[in-house]
Structure formats: C-alpha cells, structure tokens
C-alpha cells in the first residue's frame, strides 16, 4: 500500500510538471517570431508529452489491476491455508486420541499378562530351580509400564493435588532423562500448574533428603541411589526457575531455611577432592539458596567452600554471582589454581573479566606441565601400568586445553598445532595397543578351543583295554553266523 501511494504521488507530480511544460510551450508559441517557430517544434513536443502521459497512466492502471488481483489471490490462499490447518489439527487430535486408546489397551493387556504370569504355579520348588525364568522379564515389563503410564497429564494432576509421592515417583522413574531439555520443559510446566509450586518443591526435597519412611517404599521396593537422589533434588530446583526466572517466596522462606540448614549439616565439611555425590549435594544446596533467596543465612566463607566444591558445574560462575560473591572471585581463582584446577579457574577468569590479573595462557601451560610431571612420576613408580595411565591423563589434559583455547578464542596467542600433533600420536598409540590386545584375546580363545578338542579326542576311559591283534583281525573280517 505504501508503494502504491508513492506511485500515485509521483504521477501527480508528473502531471503538474507536464502542465507547467505545456503552459511554457503555449507561451512560447504565442510569440510571433518566425525564427523561433522554425527552430522549436511546439506542436510535436505537446503531442509527445501527451502520449507519454497517457502511456504512464495506462501502465499505472494495469499495475493497479494486477495488484488487486494478487491481493485477492493472497486472501484466498490464506483462507485455504487456515482451513487446512484446522483440518490438520482435527486429524492430529483424532490420531492422538486413537494412539492413546491403543496405548491404554496395550498397557492393560501387559498388566493382565503380568498378573497371569505371577499367578502361574511353578513346576518345581524354588530351591531346586532358583528364580523363575520370567521373573526378570516381568520386572522389566512392570518397570516399563510404570514409566509409560506416568504421562505428563498425570504428573500435572499430581502437582495440582500437591501429591509429593506421585511427583517423586515420576522423577525417580525418569532419572535417565535428567539431561534432556524436554524433560525440564515438561517438569517445569507441571510444577507451575500446582497451586503453590515453590512449597511443592520444598516438600519433595524434604521427602527425598529426610524421609520419615524408607526410600524403598517410594520406588516400589527399589532403593534410590544417592547419585539419583541428589540429582533429582537439583533437577527439581532448576525446574522451578526454568524459563521463568527466580521469584521472591516470602511465605515459605522459613521452611527453605530449615531444609538448607539440615542439608548443610548432612553435607559436612566440603573437600575439594570429595566424591561426585558430595559435589552434587553442594550444587543442589547452592541452587536452593539462590532460588529461594536465603543466601544471607550462610557465612561467606562457607559459601566460598561450596563454590569451590562445584567448579566444573556448567553454571558455577552464574551461581557465584547470584550468591553475592563477585568480590571474592579472586580468592576462588587462587584456590582453584593452587589445587591444580586451572581449567575451572579460567572459566571464572573470563566470566568476571580477570584476564589481566590472571593470564590464561600461563595457566594453561602450568596445567599441562603439572599433568606431565605427575605422569612422569607414575611412569617411574608403576612401570608399564604407569605408562598407560600417564598417557591417558596426558590425552585428557591436552583435549581440555585445546577445548578451552577454542572456547575463549586464544588460538592467536597460544599455538595449538603441537598439542594436536601430540593428541594424534597418543590416540594412534592407544588404538594400536587396543588392536594388539584384541588380537591376543582372539588367539587365546582359538588356542583354548584347539587344546580342549585335543584333550577330549585323546581321552580314554580307565577301564578301556588296548585292542589286540586278534580283535583287529576280527573287526577286519567279521564272522557271519548263518541260521540253521
């Protein structure tokens, strides 16, 4: 529309210019000087200008007609697309309903089959045969049924009812999907459908961390491993703020503070070389403090220890900023460097713009030198096994350095070609050793089979007698007994 208005304005201005030009020609024609009339063809100029004006007006009308035609066609196409989208949505809805019905039918059939399988009497006693054949299969079928039946709709129903055990059963059954973004999406949307999402998450955390009943009753006789338990706590807290950001929860701060104190008491003294489960605990506790805004309940030194326990976490620098420890980051970086964790220290350096105080190239070289010196000591003390472990550690360190240099664009200052060459050498050596080990294993299996065959072929019972010459001759010419 704006372009057509501009075209109309141009045509109007052209008409005004043409009128001025024609009036100038008339004024020129009014002069009776014969010399000018012979030089300037006034009539032909008027005709030419009028023809051009008519031509442009005709072209403009044709373009307007085409534009109107295309606008009508566009509206018709949009109507057809809207109708098709509506029909596709209806078909999709019907197909999903049909798929859900088929799924329910198959699940019910599986449940009935499992019940019949469990009710079938054994052929012999359990002491003679051991566990029944179908026991493991029935357990797998029941577990698959649990995972399949727990749909997103049922999870939302549990959240709406503030059912802690239902949500907890869903989370523990789906622990294999903890690293998927879609899992966070559905869990976050389900938690947001609860009347009090923040209180629901706290209740679930309390049930997980400090259960009044054994944890096996939640997962149908299965014990929840500490790794899954603390990872589930972290996932629940992160799902509360996933795509929604942090909010202020004034009404439940006391409950959050009580849980945080208990959690900190069970965590105990955080060591930099602690187990992976302890690091998950520390990360979950930090996320709880940040999400519910209760960082003031802890001393800065304790918070720094918690941050030092999780330097390899993806959002460690963001959590440190949220804890209000930006002014303590230089101390954190120095502690990480002194403990041999130069790569996490570089993450903090670039997150808080401390490159001038702590040159990253120097830290990368220091990290490689320390790894190589430790590897050299292992080679001297452990021999061949030490060489293998040393090569593996050096390969991991080289890959970390190359990744860090590419992540923070340090290739201009730090040449990566020697490191990549060394990586290729270590990978080739590792592949050759693996191939030699596989060939040796195959040869040993073949040799064992041949030896086993020979031992069975030459083995003879103890009561077997040596065949005599008479026996050999009788076997060569058997006697035929004729019936009288």
TrEMBL record:
Coiled-coil spans in chain: 63-90
Region (Disordered): 118-142, 435-468
Cited Pfam families: Frigida
InterPro entries xref list: Frigida
UniProt GO BP: cell differentiation; flower development
Keywords: Coiled coil, Developmental protein, Differentiation, Flowering
Family per similarity comment: Belongs to the Frigida family.
Protein name (record): FRIGIDA-like protein
Organism: Dioscorea cayennensis subsp. rotundata
Taxonomic path: Eukaryota, Viridiplantae, Streptophyta, Embryophyta, Tracheophyta
Gene from which this protein is expressed: LOC120283388
């Amino acid at each position: 529309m704006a372009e057509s208005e501009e075209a109309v304005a141009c045509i109007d201005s052209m008409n005004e210019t043409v009128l001025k030009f024609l009036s100038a020609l008339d004024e020129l024609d009014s002069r009776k000087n014969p010399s000018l009339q012979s030089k300037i063809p006034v009539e032909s100029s008027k005709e030419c200008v009028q023809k051009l004006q008519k031509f442009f007006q005709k072209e403009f009308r044709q373009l307007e007609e085409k534009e109107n035609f295309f606008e009508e066609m566009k509206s018709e196409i949009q109507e057809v697309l809207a109708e098709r989208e509506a029909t596709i949505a209806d078909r999709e809805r019907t197909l999903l309903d049909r798929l859900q019905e088929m799924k329910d039918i198959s699940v019910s059939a599986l449940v009935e089959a499992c019940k019949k399988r469990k009710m079938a009497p054994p052929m012999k006693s359990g002491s003679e045969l051991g566990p029944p054949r179908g026991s493991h299969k029935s357990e797998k079928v029941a577990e698959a049924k649990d995972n399949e039946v727990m749909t997103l709709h049922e999870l939302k129903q549990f959240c709406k009812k503030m059912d802690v055990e239902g949500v907890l059963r869903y989370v523990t059954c789906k622990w294999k999907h903890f690293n998927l973004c879609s899992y966070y999406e559905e869990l976050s949307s389900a938690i947001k459908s609860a009347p009090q999402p923040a209180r629901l998450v706290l209740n679930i955390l309390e049930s997980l961390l400090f259960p009044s009943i054994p944890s096996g009753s939640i997962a149908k006789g299965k014990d929840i491993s500490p790794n899954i338990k603390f990872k589930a706590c972290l996932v629940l807290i992160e799902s509360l703020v996933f795509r929604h950001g942090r909010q202020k929860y004034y009404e439940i701060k006391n409950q959050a503070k009580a849980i945080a104190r208990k959690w900190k008491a069970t965590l105990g003294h955080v060591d930099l070389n602690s187990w992976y489960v302890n690091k998950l605990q520390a990360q979950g506790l930090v996320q709880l403090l940040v999400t519910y805004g209760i960082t003031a309940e802890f001393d800065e030194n304790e918070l720094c220890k918690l941050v030092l326990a999780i330097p390899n976490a993806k959002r460690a620098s963001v959590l440190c900023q949220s804890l209000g420890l930006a002014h303590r980051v230089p101390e954190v970086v120095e502690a990480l460097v002194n403990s041999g964790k130069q790569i996490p220290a570089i993450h903090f350096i670039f997150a808080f713009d401390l490159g001038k105080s702590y040159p990253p190239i120097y830290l990368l070289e220091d990290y490689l030198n320390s790894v190589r010196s430790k590897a050299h000591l292992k080679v001297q003390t452990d021999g061949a096994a030490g060489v293998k472990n040393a090569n593996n550690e050096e390969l991991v360190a080289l890959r970390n350095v190359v990744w860090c240099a590419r992540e923070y664009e340090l290739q201009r200052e730090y040449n990566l070609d020697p490191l990549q060459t060394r990586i290729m050498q270590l990978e080739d050596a590792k592949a050759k050793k693996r191939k030699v080990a596989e060939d040796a294993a195959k040869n040993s299996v073949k040799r064992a089979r041949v030896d086993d065959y020979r031992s069975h072929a030459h083995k003879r019972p103890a009561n077997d007698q040596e065949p005599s010459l008479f026996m050999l001759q009788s076997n060569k010419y058997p006697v035929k007994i004729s019936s009288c």
